[in-house]
Amino acid sequence: MSNVAVVGSQWGDEGKGKIVDWLSERADVVVRFQGGHNAGHTLVIDGEVYKLSLLPSGIVRKGKMSIIGNGVVVDPWALLAEMDRLREQGVELTPDNLKISENAALILPLHGEVDRAREAAAKGDAKIGTTGRGIGPAYEDKVGRRAIRICDLADPDFLKERVDALLLHHNALLRGLNQPEIDGAGVVEKLLEIAPKILPFVDVVWQRLEECRKTDKRVLFEGAQGAMLDVDHGTYPFVTSSNTISGQASAGSGVGPSSVGYVLGITKAYTTRVGSGPFPTELFDDVGQRLGERGHEFGTVTGRQRRCGWFDAVMVRQACKVGGITGIALTKLDVLDGFKELKVCVGYRIDGEEFDHLPSLPSKQAKVEPIYETLEGWDDSTYGARSWADLPATAIKYIRRIEELIDVPVALLSTSPERDDTILVQDPFHPKS
């Protein structure tokens, strides 16, 4: 038996929600280990649609413990609003089934103000395409040792000191952006008001996970975004503000690397991206529009339309190597139904030179020309297929070619948003079976 970490292998939006839900039914504990409420999962269970941003996907399953790890930046107001929405849908949330790491950093309203002010001040290509929810500034405060952490809510005097130190930095920044300064007393008042609603859920998460290890509980580590948005390994600076690869599952939850187990990379059968930044296989024609319409490519959190393009095997292979991905879950294969031919990017060309990886230098990333291999498409529907026998032969060839190009096998195949429309090739919780 193995624990499982679920990560995105592209730019996020690969369909992690359904896969995590599918796995969470068989897990005992689900841990969210990075990111903030700028990411979203949509779960469809027995016809009921659940939209999650901060809460782990296991929260909608009875009898599961859900954990928000220290690697997450938590907007307490957004968290309580999300909890209220789920309660209205009949989901039980108590300190018994939801635990928040005591050392997780908080996102404050001022972080969103700073985020939006900076993005508004940026010009042209300097705009990142941030959601404006304060994720970046909150992570900056964390590494700058200015952050307000959840445990600070339990000590009003210490909290006031921390807020004063935080505003020494942020008010100077806001002055430079010609924005109004923030009143510290108001920030403290809001935090103390919300503290009694949050503190009952706070726990020493690393100890809970150590107990799980000793009692052989199955743990599912849930990431947000995708590998190419990783702050170190993604298309910097057009990235998120945290590490999104599987190594963060360890640091962001408080367990050793050996406890992470099988790494499942969620991989869309084509490619999408939200926001600014390089996108080698992006399509601006009718094909790109068709992919977006058939795939319903709009962000769960922001509603922003996603940019669409052909499958980029170079990028996914790089994500698999950097992120230690054991197997992939290939999603949205059905969106490709009816295409006469499909293209897969097998290499890059930059100024006449061929590359088998995406260079880190932004000026080179901006010049990438994809080298395509053309594959035969299929007319038959793959929607709802639950076995290899249900798939057209050319669809199977497409899958096998992707496996060859990224050097990682397909462990799961998703053929619709419904959780049961899944072909299991290798069980991540029992990888040797």
- C-alpha geometry: globular
Alpha-beta classification? alpha/beta
Largest beta-sheet characterization: 10 strands, mixed
Radius of gyration: 22 Å
Protein name: Adenylosuccinate synthetase
Binding site for IMP: 13-16, 38-41, 131, 145, 225, 240, 304
Family: Belongs to the adenylosuccinate synthetase family.
Catalytic activity: IMP + L-aspartate + GTP = N(6)-(1,2-dicarboxyethyl)-AMP + GDP + phosphate + 2 H(+)
Description:
The protein is α/β, with parallel strands linked by helices and 433 residues long. Among the domains are: 105-198, Orthogonal Bundle (Adenylosuccinate Synthetase, subunit A, domain 2), CATH 1.10.300.10; 265-424, Adenylosuccinate Synthetase, Chain A, domain 3, CATH 3.90.170.10. Helices cover 31% and strands 20% of the residues. It is built from twelve helices and 20 strands. It has helices at 16-24, 76-88, 109-121, 135-143, 156-176, 184-198, 205-214, 247-251, 286-294, 313-323, 362-365, 393-406, and strands spanning 4-8, 29-32, 41-45, 48-52, 65-68, 73-74, 98-101, 105-106, 202-203, 219-222, 262-268, 271-273, 307-309, 311-312, 327-331, 341-350, 353-355, 369-376, 410-414, 422-424. A ten-stranded mixed beta sheet has the order 9-7-5-2-10-1-11-15-19-20, sandwiched between helices. Strands 14, 16, 17 and 18 form a four-stranded mixed beta sheet that branches. A two-stranded antiparallel sheet has the order 3-4. Helix 3 (109-121) packs across helix 4 (135-143) and helix 5 packs across helix 6. The radius of gyration is 22 Å and the shape is globular. The relative contact order is 0.15.
